[in-house]
Amino acid sequence: MKVVFVVDSVEELNNKISIIKNHFGDNLHFVVKGNLVPLFTTFNLPISAVYVNNLAEVVHALLLRLESDDVVMCYASLNFNNKLIDDFIKKIGNKDKVVNVMPHYNAWEKMCNGAYNLYVRSMFKANDSMVSPKLQFLPAVFVNELLISHFGNKLFEIGAEHVSTLYVEDKALNKSLKVKSGFNKNGLIPIIVALFITLALVMCLAFFKPHFLLIIMFVCLYLADIILAITYQCKTYFDARFLK
């Protein structure tokens, strides 16, 4: 079994590496975020690969170079402890299933996830499993299948008979399990479009008497812009989870 340890944070890094080594051994491959490379080199640890916004591709290429084996994916930004890893190992068992960690989502997050999965299904004909990408066990057979397609596909839903899921309720751990999509400049497009629609509406009201068809037209334009904004946000979240 090998561990792909994604260094996207250096907070308590030595402690986290120690926990992983104590549970999984020394077969660690460090994939380091580009801006953290200078700092990471001070830990005197080998770097297997460096990524910027292409994590899935970099890990894919790394695994193609290595011998086929079971893989544990772990992110340094996850605030894990011995208890979580102990529970995770119990789920791994005889290594015949993918092991995922599922954070708790509140009612608002579940509603947003439902809308997001509409986007995912429309694009890829499959659901995002909504598990955390920050801690996963992938059997060698499943890894080999991923390397034929794309390593990022590990987050899509698969048959329940092939998965074992660890559910987490701890608030602090939940927060670090979830992916933050951050800001994307494409998100400015719907805002700019909304400003132009509003400007057009003001000009129309200034030169024409308001009537039913005019109001319906602008309502439709605003609705289309809202759909555009949601689509951009869904794409940004998908990229953050599957690719970056």
Low-pLDDT residue spans = none
Order of helices and strands: EHEHEHEHEHEHEHHH
Radius of gyration: 22 Å
Structural class: alpha/beta
- Amino-to-carboxy terminus distance: 24 Å
Give the percentage of residues in beta strands: 5-15%
Determine the mean pLDDT: 92
Percent helix, as a range, is: 40-55%
Side-by-side strand order of the widest sheet: 3-2-1-4-6-5-7
Give the count of helical stretches.
Answer: 9
Oligomer: single chain
Structural shape: elongated
Query: What's the main sheet like?
Result: 7 strands, mixed
Beta strand count: 7
Detailed description of the structure:
Helices cover 50% and strands 14% of the residues. By secondary structure, it is an alpha/beta fold. A seven-stranded mixed β-sheet has the order 3-2-1-4-6-5-7, with helices on both faces. Strand 2 (28-33), helix 2 (37-40) and strand 3 form a beta-alpha-beta unit. Helix 8 packs antiparallel against helix 9 (212-242). The longest helix is centred in the last third of the chain and has 31 residues, at 212-242. The two termini are 24 Å apart. The relative contact order is 0.13.
Give me the secondary-structure topology:
Elements: E1 2-7, H1 13-24, E2 28-33, H2 37-40, E3 49-51, H3 55-65, E4 71-75, H4 82-92, E5 98-102, H5 107-124, E6 135-138, H6 140-148, E7 163-167, H7 171-177, H8 188-207, H9 212-242
Parallel strand pairs: 1-2, 1-4, 2-3, 5-7
Antiparallel strand pairs: 4-6, 5-6
Helix pairs in contact: 5-9, 8-9
